[in-house]
Amino acid sequence: MEAHHRTVPLPGTSLSYHVTGAGAAATPVVLLHPWFGCWQFWTSTMRGLSERPCYAVDFYSPAAGEWSAAPGPAALADAVVAMLDAEGLDQVDVVGNSVGGIVAQVIASTVPERVRRLVLVGTGASTHGALPGFAQAVDRWIDAARDGGAASRPAAEEAVGMLFTRRPDAPVWETFVQAVLRTDPRYVAAVLEAARRLDLTPRLSRITAPTLVVRGSEDCARTAEHAAVLAEGIPSARSVELPGAGHSPMVDQPDRFTGLVAAHLDESTPEPVGSGR
Predict the structure, then answer these.
(1) CB-based contact 79:62 (threshold 8 Å)
(2) pLDDT digits 0-9 by tens, 20-60
(3) How far apart are CA 120 and CA 161, in angstroms?
(4) In which region does residue 132 sit, left (phi positive, over 0), alpha (psi from -120 to 50) or beta (all else)?
(5) Which segments constitute the AB hydrolase-1 domain (predicted)?
(6) With contact defined as beta carbons under 8 Å apart, do 109 and 81 qualify?
(7) Angle at CA of residue 105, ends 102 and 107, nearest 5°
(8) Among residues 234, 232, 214, 211, which one has the least CA distance to residue 275?
C-alpha cells in the first residue's frame, strides 16, 4: 500500500496529508490522528479500507510554517475543510481519535452537510474529567514548552506510550516518537491548551451524520462518561467499548477496529464488542 503525500496551502503555512486508494468509487475517508500520535497511526486502517480513498492528515505539518495566529482544533478543522475543497471532496466520512476526534466534531457540527458518517475514537465533547495520569503528562509538556524547553525523548516516549496498551515493534515505535520530536513543542502545547478550553457539548445536536463512538476499555485519558456524553448528545449515535484496547485502538487492535469502522461506514450493524446504548 503506497501513500501519496500531498499538501494544501494555508495562511502562512500548509497542511500535509497522505492519500491511498485515490480514484476508488466509495465515499472518501478522512483520518484525524490523536495528539502525540501521528498520521502513521492509521496505516493498518488504511490497509483495511483499501477499497476506499483514505486521507490521513498530518496535524503536525502546520508547525513548519507560521502557526501562531490561531492554533487549536478550530484552526485544524478549517485546514481539513481547505483540504476537502482542494481535493474537490463534497462529502466524506470522518474518523477522529482524541484531539482528532475533537476536530472531527468541529467539522461535523460546522459543515454537517459535508460529513456522511462519523467515527469518534477515545475522545469527548470536552477534556474536562480526563483521567489524572494523562492530564498530568499533558501539564508537564505544556509547562516545559512555556519555559522554552525543547521536547525531550523521555517526554515524547511518555506521551506516545500512553496512547496504547502495549509498545509496537521497534521501527514503528521509533516512527511514532520521531513524529513528536520533530514538531515544535510550543505548537504541540498551544493546540492542547486550545483543546482544553473547548466544550462542544452544546454543538453536538448539530451533527447530522450517523456516528459511532468507540472507547477502549483501558483508555488512560477518556472515561466511559466522555463516550456517554457524545452518544447522548449526537442525534444519531451509538457507542461501543473495545475490551483491552487503549486510547488509540487502531494501534492496539487494528483488525477489530477496522472491522468496526468498515461496518459503520457500510451502514451495517457490527458484531457487539462491549457496552452500547
Answers:
(1) yes
(2) 998 888 999 999 999 999 999 999 999 999 999 999 999 99
(3) 21
(4) alpha
(5) 28-252
(6) no
(7) 115
(8) 214
State the alpha helices, DSSP H only, in the chain. Answer: 43-48, 73-87, 99-110, 132-146, 153-161, 170-181, 185-197, 224-233, 249-252, 254-265
Contacts of 112 (CB under 8 A, 6+ apart): 206, 207, 208, 209
Q: Which residues of the chain have pLDDT under 50?
A: 268-277
C-alpha dist (Å) from residue 25 to 53, 114, 244: 8, 17, 34
Confidence at residue 269, expressed as pLDDT on a 0 to 100 scale? 42
Residue 243 to residue 228: CA distance in whole angstroms:
16
What global pTM score does this model have? 0.94
C-alpha cell at 249: 485502538
* Residues contacting 191, CB < 8 A, separation 6+: 35, 59, 71, 72, 73, 76, 99
Q: Which domains can be identified in the chain, with CATH numbers?
A: 4-265 (3.40.50.1820)
